[in-house]
């Protein structure tokens, strides 16, 4: 514990090292000095559907221990369940059997996390099915198509452009009351009833939360641009809908705060502090959901890291650059020194100069927009009174 709060511990996501064998990726991160890893369960990294998962997990656990790496289990693999649909099926799928496949993946992730001694299991809501009138980021009533939509930026370098999702932006209002959790299987998502999507999400997560509670592993859901649960306000809607279960926590992607939250990222951290179980970090620009290497976006990192340290957060802060696996070792090597400099600048309250071109670099229950949001951390980003609309399916 420093004078400013807890010393931050940094990790790197294996979804940004997809071209490396898992053992090689872990060895690289340990050699570079990372404290841990965000382990995305995928076909090339501890495949959650392949045989002998328990035995393979034990081997990975021994390797993590030997390397001195902590771990958080992430579940954002693009095609691990469906080779044709990115992140499909989701917890919102109209087909109960399809939803059950996603629930099964999360249950497997909880077991893996328990065996590895992980800090948390990460998950997300998924996008609302295209035929539904429920809006991304709308907590109960849905929303109308909006203009001035947030875009999903194209990846840089050699990353495949096909990873970038596009779509029409929609937005919605945070509900003023919570709908009861009913039987989602009896409702039709095509009716346009946004409450049905939230009911499906709550019902799908219930058995996972029970398993997480039994295992003593937090389930940390991530507000994701373009998804049903897109903002901190949406997280609180789900939390209340579920009755505030102790196993439910929050994955806070700091770049997403820069991208679309009405509060500046540092204020988002302070507002989210009681529920923080996992943190992801990268650079990003206002209004563009594109995970960027440090120094290529608009984030002012020292105030954000100072706020995070002041919360007492003890988990990993994991670099998430899933569109940069083509140069993953380079970005892993460059990112950690940047974060160390930013953390030192935060402790000294001295501004940090961003890396140059080629080198990549307890709060109240109220994350809803304030009447007048404070100024953002960067001059280029002006905080709106409501969340910036986002395209469906813009998850990296």
UniProtKB/TrEMBL annotation:
Protein name: Sugar phosphate isomerase/epimerase family protein
Low complexity bias: start-end ranges: 142-155, 360-385
GO molecular function: isomerase activity
Domain Xylose isomerase-like TIM barrel span(s) in chain numbering: 26-130, 193-339
Pfam families: AP_endonuc_2
Region of interest (Disordered), ranges: 131-191, 360-396
Isomerase found in the keyword field: yes
UniProt entry keywords in alphabetical sequence: Isomerase
């Amino acid at each position: 514990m420093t004078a400013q709060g807890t010393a931050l511990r940094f990790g790197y996501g294996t979804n940004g090292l997809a071209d490396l064998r898992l053992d090689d990726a872990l060895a690289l991160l340990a050699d570079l000095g990372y404290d841990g890893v965000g382990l995305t369960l995928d076909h090339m990294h501890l495949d959650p559907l392949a045989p002998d998962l328990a035995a393979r997990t034990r081997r990975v656990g021994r390797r993590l221990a030997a390397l001195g790496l902590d771990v958080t289990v992430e579940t954002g693999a693009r095609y691990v369940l469906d080779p044709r649909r990115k992140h499909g099926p989701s917890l919102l799928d109209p087909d109960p059997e399809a939803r059950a496949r996603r629930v099964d993946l999360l249950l497997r992730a909880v077991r893996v996390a328990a065996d590895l001694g992980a800090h948390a299991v990460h998950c997300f809501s998924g996008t609302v099915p295209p035929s539904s009138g429920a809006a991304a980021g709308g907590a109960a009533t849905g929303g109308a198509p909006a203009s001035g939509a947030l875009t999903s930026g194209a990846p840089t370098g050699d990353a495949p452009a096909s990873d970038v999702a596009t779509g029409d932006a929609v937005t919605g209002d945070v509900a003023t009351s919570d709908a009861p959790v009913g039987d989602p299987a009896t409702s039709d998502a095509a009716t346009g009833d946004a409450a049905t999507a939230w009911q499906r999400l709550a019902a799908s997560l219930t058995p996972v939360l029970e398993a997480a509670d039994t295992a003593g592993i937090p389930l940390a859901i991530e507000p994701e641009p373009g998804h049903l649960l897109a903002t901190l306000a949406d997280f609180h809607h789900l939390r209340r809908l579920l009755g505030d279960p102790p196993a439910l926590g929050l994955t806070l992607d700091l770049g997403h705060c820069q991208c679309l939250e009405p509060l500046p990222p540092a204020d988002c951290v302070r507002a989210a502090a009681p529920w923080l179980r996992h943190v992801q970090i990268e650079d990003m620009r206002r209004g563009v959901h594109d995970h960027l290497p440090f120094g290529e976006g608009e984030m002012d990192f020292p105030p954000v890291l100072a706020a995070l340290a002041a919360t007492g957060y003890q988990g990993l802060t994991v670099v998430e650059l899933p569109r940069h696996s083509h140069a993953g070792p380079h970005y892993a090597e460059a990112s950690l020194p940047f974060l160390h400099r930013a953390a030192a600048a935060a402790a000294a309250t001295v501004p940090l100069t961003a890396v140059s071109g080629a080198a990549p670099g307890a709060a109240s229950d109220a994350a809803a927009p304030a009447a007048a949001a404070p100024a953002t951390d960067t001059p280029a980003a002006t905080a709106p009174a409501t969340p910036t609309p986002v395209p469906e399916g813009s998850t990296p």
